[in-house]
Structure formats: structure tokens, C-alpha cells
Design a protein that fits this description.
By secondary structure, this protein is α+β, with helices and mostly antiparallel strands. Among the domains are: 3-156, no CATH class; 328-464, Histidine kinase-like ATPase, C-terminal domain (Heat Shock Protein 90), CATH 3.30.565.10. Helices cover 67% and strands 9% of the residues. It has 14 helices and 7 strands. It has helices at residues 3-28, 30-33, 35-41, 45-58, 64-83, 88-110, 122-184, 189-208, 215-252, 258-293, 305-323, 346-369, 403-406, 426-438; strands spanning 301-303, 330-334, 342-344, 378-386, 389-396, 441-447, 451-459. The strands form 2 sheets. It has a 5-stranded mixed β-sheet, with helices on one face. The longest helix is centred in the first third of the chain and has 63 residues, at 122-184.
């Protein structure tokens, strides 16, 4: 072997080592996790440069020098991985590299002075080399998969944090708007201040309560629902201001167009009627939100179940849409005409319906994610009057509930959702509200992979 060949192998080893170190630093995020090791590894070429000078000065030609440098690099990488053993991909890489380092050390020990392996060990070392390379490549792919999984988990956590911050920002903005309107509407100042205080108190209680596990969906739904009437109010108000300016200009002219003035007055009147209509709609949404947030007093009042079911169906849908803009579903309502009002605690029944609707949308979304051809997510609600009782049916064409699970769904803390997506208290609380709070019944009918239907029966005039 020529002296230049020995130099070349050492230079190639140094370049390969620098490349591996850079790749490993990026893969394991060493600048943040181990900044000192990262700075040290940036000088991995220094030992190679020193060996190069020694070879040049003493005119050494042994290839063992390059192999020794390569073994030094491997031991340094093992030390880095050992320092990061708490990190799962690093632990996997440590497991992957250990046989390879042992093999290289054994090869260095068995090589003669010319860097050649004795023939007696050729078959054994070739077999061992194939094994350790397959081992190394396999576990590198495993570490890469683990890295992707951890990165995905990190992104999910970041998305959850962003969603929490968004909800907090919406709550802050909502409180600011309420405060501004309170100042403007002086005749209702005291009433709105009391409502706002009650809202803040109940919000703090609901955040602590498992009854409001779906508070995020409700808040997002309300925000979407209230935005439309507010946009209409603002737009019609702006147009009316422009028409008033145009009317003043026309009245100031020497030759006035009375037909144009009459037309402008009619348009302004129509705009004011629309502003009033959409203002009443916004007030209705805020009133419904306050009623839902207010802690239940247990006082029963005549309740329109058609209106209650329709309101909470849209709120639950908009709440899920706020989390996933790509989700769409068909909402089907079949409300009985002239349905008698039921003596009930409206906010409590609202929580029951919100829970059932939220579960229905979750089920159809999970089935949609399976990618079934021609599948159309659908959630429906219907009401009927049966003698002295009123029935509410909530149906979805989602995943369905297996027979073995169906008997347990009303038990406290039982849930079929993945960890972190359900508390297991929603249906249990709904069952207590319907049966113990209103003297009614709630049952479930389902076929796995096709549909789920909940039937709520409520007496029109419950005893007690």
C-alpha cells in the first residue's frame, strides 16, 4: 500500500466522520439537548488532522491508523448516545451501534500490521459483518420511525396548546365586547353587570366540572353562531350611514329629487328593521349561552324541546367545525308540530343533548376518517309526542356501539374514546339528569359499523 493511499483513507474517514456527526446532531437535536457535546463533535476532524501530521512527519504507512481513528469516532458517538439514553431514538441507536463497534474493535485486533485480516477469520468476519450491518440498518430505521412518532406527538401537543390559547383569547374578547356594550346600554347596565359576574363565576365552576367536558365545543359554536348576526348588524349600519349622508346631500340641493329621498328613506327603514332583527338574534344567542352556563337551580319551567334540540345541535356541530375545518356533516331535524312544552330544567336537558350530539359527531367523524367510499356523515334529531310523554331521538350513522360495550356506556368513567378524548362521565351524568332529575328514561339502540340511536322519554308533567 502506498503512503498516499494511507493518507487518502484517513482523509476519507475524517470526511465521513464529519458527515455522520452532522447528521446525528440534526437527528438528535444535539445543539439543544447536549450543547457541550455538540461543540466537541464539531472538532471530530482534529484527531484525523493530528494523525495526518504524524504520518507525514514519521512517514508511517499503516492503515491501522485510519481504522484506529474510525474506532475512536465510533466510541465518541456511543458516548453521546449513552448521555442521551433517556431519549428513545438515541437509546435505539445505541442498541443499533453496539454490535457494529464491537465488530470494528475485533477487526482492528485481528488485523495484521498491513491492515489485512488473516484468512482463517475471513468466513467468520464476513458473516459477522453482514449481521451487524443488517442489525445497524434495521435499528436506524426503527429509530427514524420513533423520531417521527415523537415529532408527531410534539406537534399534537402544540396544536392542543394553540387551541387552548385560542379559546382563552375568544373568552377574553367576548368579555371585552360584553363590557363595551354594558357601558353603551346604560339602561341595562346593572342587569348586564350581574349577568357578566354570574357568567364568570359559572365559567370557573364549569371548567372544574366534568359536566362541561365539551366546553370547548360549546364556546366555539357560540362564537360561530354569534358572528353572523353581528356582521349583519355592522354591514346594515354602515350602509344606513351612507344613505343618510346621501339623503342630506339631496336635501341640500336647490332642486331636490323627492322620489329619490323617499326611496332612500324606505331603504333606511328596511335596514333598521334588519338591524333590529339580527340584534335580537344575537341577544337570543347570548341569552341561551348564559342559561347554559348558569348553574342549575333545579327549578322546572315549561320548555320548548324543539327549540332546545335545534339550538344545541347547531352549537355542537359548530364546536367540532371550529376544531376541524375540513369536517362536514348532514344535519337532519324532524320536529313534531305543536309539540307540548315539558316541565323541565332547560340547562340540564341542554347538557344532555349537547353530550349526545357531540358523541354523534365524534362517531361519524371517526367513521369518515376510515375513508369508506360514498359515506356521508349524518346526525339527526327528531321529537314526537306519545300520550303523556315526549320523546327525543338522536341518531348518527357512525361507528356504532358493540354489543359487549352497550351495557356499560351509562356507567361512570366508562368510555370507548382514546385516552385524553373522553372522561367517561358524559353519558353517566346525562342518565342521572334524565332519570333522577326528570323522572324519564334514556335508552340506546345500535348496530356496530352502521348507526347509534339514543331515545329520551320525558313526562310532560313529572310528579314531585
Amino acid at each position: 500500500m502506498s503512503q498516499s493511499a494511507g493518507y487518502g483513507e484517513l482523509i476519507i474517514s475524517a470526511l465521513v466522520a464529519v458527515g455522520i456527526v452532522r447528521g446525528l446532531s440534526k437527528f438528535l437535536d444535539l445543539p439543544q439537548r447536549l450543547p457541550r457535546w455538540h461543540r466537541l463533535l464539531n472538532y471530530i476532524w482534529v484527531p484525523a488532522a493530528a494523525l495526518f501530521l504524524v504520518m507525514a512527519v514519521f512517514k508511517l504507512r499503516s492503515p491501522l491508523i485510519g481504522e484506529g481513528y474510525w474506532l475512536l469516532v465510533l466510541f465518541l458517538l456511543l458516548a453521546v448516545l449513552l448521555a442521551l439514553r433517556h431519549y428513545r431514538p438515541a437509546r435505539t441507536l445505541l442498541f443499533a451501534m453496539a454490535p457494529f463497534v464491537v465488530y470494528k474493535a475485533l477487526e482492528l485486533l485481528l488485523d495484521d500490521s498491513n491492515g489485512k485480516l488473516p484468512k482463517a477469520y475471513d468466513a467468520f468476519m464476513d458473516t459477522t459483518q453482514g449481521f451487524v450491518l443488517i442489525w445497524l440498518v434495521t435499528f436506524i430505521f426503527i429509530a427514524r420511525s420513533q423520531k417521527k412518532a415523537l415529532e408527531k406527538e410534539r406537534l399534537l401537543r402544540e396544536e392542543d396548546e394553540k387551541a387552548k390559547h385560542l379559546i382563552e383569547a375568544q373568552n377574553v374578547e367576548l368579555e371585552r365586547l360584553v363590557a363595551e356594550r354594558t357601558a353603551a346600554l346604560t339602561t341595562q347596565a346593572e342587569e348586564l353587570r350581574g349577568a357578566l359576574t354570574e357568567l364568570r363565576t359559572t365559567q370557573a365552576q364549569l371548567v372544574q366540572s366534568e359536566k362541561m367536558a365539551s366546553l370547548g365545543e360549546l364556546t366555539a359554536g357560540i362564537a360561530h353562531e354569534i358572528q353572523n348576526p353581528l356582521n349583519f348588524v355592522n354591514n346594515f349600519a354602515d350602509v344606513s350611514v351612507e344613505m343618510l349622508d346621501e339623503l342630506r346631500e339631496e336635501q341640500a340641493r336647490p332642486e331636490r329629487d323627492l322620489d329619490l329621498e323617499a326611496e332612500l328613506l324606505r331603504d333606511i327603514s328596511q335596514n333598521l328593521q334588519k338591524i333590529h332583527h339580527h340584534g335580537q338574534r344575537a341577544a337570543s344567542i347570548v341569552k341561551g349561552m348564559l342559561e347554559h352556563s348558569r348553574a342549575s337551580t333545579g327549578e322546572r319551567q315549561p320548555t320548548d324541546l324543539n327549540h332546545l334540540a335545534d339550538e344545541y345541535l347547531r352549537l355542537a356541530y359548530q364546536g367540532l367545525r371550529a376544531k376541524d375545518k375540513s369536517f362536514n356533516a348532514t344535519l337532519v331535524t324532524d320536529f313534531a308540530a305543536n309539540l307540548p312544552q315539558v316541565e323541565a330544567v332547560g340547562p340540564d336537558l341542554g347538557r344532555v343533548l349537547l353530550n349526545l350530539f357531540s358523541n354523534g359527531f365524534y362517531a361519524v367523524r371517526q367513521r369518515q376518517l376510515r375513508g369508506e367510499a360514498g359515506y356521508a356523515p349524518t346526525v339527526s334529531v327528531s321529537t314526537t309526542s306519545q300520550g303523556d310523554e315526549v320523546e327525543i331521538r338522536v341518531r348518527d350513522n357512525g361507528l356504532g356501539i358493540p354489543e359487549a360495550v352497550r351495557q356499560k356506556i351509562f356507567q361512570p368513567f366508562f368510555t370507548t374514546k382514546p385516552s385524553g378524548e373522553g372522561t367517561g362521565l358524559g353519558l353517566s351524568l346525562s342518565y342521572d339528569i334524565v332519570t333522577k332529575g326528570h323522572g324519564g328514561s334514556i335508552t340506546v339502540d345500535s348496530e356496530e359499523g352502521k348507526y347509534t340511536e339514543f331515545l329520551i322519554s320525558l313526562p310532560i308533567n313529572p310528579a314531585g
